[in-house]
Every structure is written in C-alpha cells, then in structure tokens.
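re: that chain from earlier
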Amino acid sequence: MSIRIQNVSFDCLDPARLAAFWAEALNWRITSVEPEEVVLEPLAGSPAEGIAPDIIFLLVPEVRVAKNRLHLDLRPSDQIAEVQRLIDLGATHVDVGQSSDVTWVVLADPEGNEFCVLRPYSAEEMASFG
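^ sequence. v structure.
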C-alpha cells in the first residue's frame, strides 16, 4: 500500500490573510483562491514540490479557543534572524508552558495558531544526514 499526506488544513477566519502570512513565512506560492479556501504549495521547481504536503486554509465561523492539537515546527538556518522575520510578518511570541532553557521559540501566526522555530542543525547533524 502506498499513502502520503496530501495536505495540512488550517481552519481560520480569514483564509486569504493567513495564507498570505504563511506564503511569505515559508516562501511558498498561493496556487488556488476560492471564497472559502486558499491553497499553498512549495515553489515550482523546488525540491519540496510534489513532496511536501500542500497547506489549505479553510474558512470557519468559530474563533480558535484552545492550544493547537497540531502545529508546525520550522527549522531555519538562522533561528534569531528567522524569528525576527516572522515577527515582522505578523507572528507574535507565545508562552505555551515551555521552560526558559528550551532550544526552540514558540510563535503564533496572525490568527493565534502556535508554531515553533527550532534551532539550526549543527554541522555534525547535517553531516550525519549524508
């Protein structure tokens, strides 16, 4: 049997606004805009095209009221610069109970969906991926 994750869906109040944030955050492209959903995909010709799941932003009438049950972890090459770039795009710092000695930064997108910006891989870790 062959199976893969086709997409990850975000329920949201403003699909266009949230898709625009994530398109900039990930350097992806918006490939479909409908009144009740917007689709993001990796850039055409990128290594992630056809491999990474699409992200779909679906219009719902309810606001988010609790901590996410699923969130994205992003691994940049420069954590400090990336956190600042994401904040400049509209993300905010959020405390979900993480201790002060963790190696990741917890942020929330413009609708409050938490995500983590991880530390970069070390040279040794990169070499082990081979």
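The chain has a mean pLDDT of 94.
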